[in-house]
Amino acid sequence: MKEAYRVLKQDRLATMFYGWSAVDKFFAAWRQVGFYPVGHIVFRKEYASKSRLVLYYHEQAYLLAKGKPPLPKDPIADVIDVDSSGNRLHPTQKPISALVSLIRSFSLSGDVLFDPLAGSRSSRAAAALTNRRYIGIEMAGRKVLH
User: Fold this and answer.
1) Full-model pTM
2) Domain of 103?
């Protein structure tokens, strides 16, 4: 998180997906480096990705700020219905359509999108669709993806 905070431009936003069962650890790491939460987004799925005590029909992300980012021209809803990604390429694969709405709302054309957990590279496809540059890292392959 320290490096994510360091490379993020001042007065900009980061979207961080997280596992709800470890939210206290995530919050501690975010706050320790200087991020502060400014929004919470729920991605409602049409299928349950897991079944335990409850059926897991959503994923979530926090919108974190560094400094004082400008308000978006077209704010998105805090609950977004998403299509299935099928998780064919990665266990936590995100639908490109959900990422496109985040990128359009919280960044500017020509910005660099940095994804330190690139996985299936859905964020790379979303960056291309929204005229953003891209840097992604995936530890499994130990590769930097441009």
Assistant:
1) 0.83
2) 2-145
